[in-house]
Design brief:
The chain is of the alpha/beta class and 269 residues long. It has ten helices and eight strands. It has an eight-stranded parallel β-sheet with strand order 1-2-3-4-5-6-7-8. α4 runs parallel beside α5 and α8 packs across α9.
Length: 269
């Protein structure tokens, strides 16, 4: 049986402080053999890295969430790059544009996003991209940054339009699906995933503690629930859960290529 990877979770959040060991062991029991816990604020990054250091099958990213972009972090790629020499730091982000909440001015979200692109290009580490209600600016910013040199990454918790999916796939990015895909309201997203996102470009994630999939909707989400999302995506793609796990786990290691494949096996043993 192929293990799943939760490609995006926030295990440093206070929601998990009381029972992190239980969360990680329940993930293992559900066949989720590896987790990527995501940085959102530089001042909290030592906690994120600390979670990754504690467990052999947890890795992390370093970045500043678009919501946090106005909390001046210097906007210098070097600040991010300095954290990437650690063996458990395998990606840049999450970064991107969130025009749904607009918690930070759009200009600063873009400035922060560009600095992350620069860090990704210079380290060769993939980006974790958050984009909401910002299709046009996400596409044009990524296109203009790619003109300066190649980098890769994933559009996490994808909820965008088919046009956004197709543009990001054309630029070489992967698409990660969260528990939102299990919601009844997600008809357009289901159709986009079924018709426009090839199996070899798909990842799965929880974005926990948020966005618990059905039947856990409204409760705290956790990495073990990756399986519910994977089952839903397998149905949409017309493949078995085993084939879906095989593809998404292989894709994870292709994209996040600093993570050793042995990291997945350690949990299974
Ligand atoms: Zn996000
Ligand atoms: Zn996130």
């Amino acid at each position: 049986v192929t293990l799943l990877v939760d490609s995006h979770c926030h295990l440093d959040f206070p929601d998990f402080a009381e029972d992190l060991d239980g969360v990680v062991s329940r993930a293992g029991a559900a066949g989720v053999g590896l987790m990527l816990t995501i940085g959102t604020k530089l001042h909290a990054f030592p906690t994120v890295r600390g979670v990754a250091e504690r467990f052999p099958n947890i890795y992390c990213s370093v970045g500043v969430h678009p919501h946090e972009a106005e909390n001046d972090w210097g906007y210098a790629a070097e600040t991010l790059i300095a954290e990437t020499h650690h063996p458990k730091v395998v990606a840049i982000g999450e970064t991107g544009l969130d025009y749904f909440y607009d918690h930070s001015p759009r200009e600063l979200q873009q400035k922060s996003f560009r600095a992350h692109c620069d860090a990704s290009r210079r380290t060769g580490l993939p980006m974790v991209i958050h984009t909401r209600d910002a299709d046009d600016d996400t596409i044009s910013l990524l296109e203009s940054e790619l003109a300066h040199g190649p980098f890769t990454g994933v559009i996490h918790c994808f909820t965008g339009t088919r046009r956004l999916a197709e543009a990001c796939l054309a630029m070489g990015f992967y698409i990660s699906i969260s528990g939102i895909i299990t919601f009844k309201s997600a008809a357009d997203l289901k159709q986009t995933v079924a018709e426009a996102v090839p199996l070899e470009k798909l990842l799965v994630e929880t974005d926990s503690p948020y966005l618990a999939p059905i039947p856990h909707r409204g409760k705290r989400n956790e990495p073990a629930f990756t399986r519910k999302t994977a089952e839903c995506v397998a149905g949409l793609k017309g493949v078995s859960i085993e084939a879906l796990a095989e593809a998404t786990t292989a894709n994870f290691f292709t994209l996040f290529n600093k993570v050793p494949r042995t990291a997945l096996l350690e949990q299974a043993a």
